[in-house]
Please model this.
Amino acid sequence: MKQPSQTRGLTDAIVFVICLSLAGYFTFAAVQGDYGLFRRIAIEAEIKSLEAERAALEVEVARMENLTRRLSDDFLDLDLLDERARDVLGLLRPEEIVIR
Model:
């Protein structure tokens, strides 16, 4: 049984439209989807931002570890201890005058 040429052309057109729709959908998903190019660019920018933040936090942790070590029993920095006591506790020496 042969199909008439008009229905054959209509079938070909429908198949072409379906294939074109699928190609458009997959192209859109590859660019805009959850795992698409734009999302990947956003994730890479976020990675760079978080790595910079991590580097800043590592510097801060190293500074705090240094201060903690300088106030430990093994290595006591008297100048730092004096500074912290004045700052935190508001201690003064008897010969000092406070000007506000």
Observations:
- The chain has a mean pLDDT of 88.
- The radius of gyration is 35 Å.
- Residues 37-70 form the longest helix (34 residues).
- The helical segments are 5-32, 37-70, 78-89.
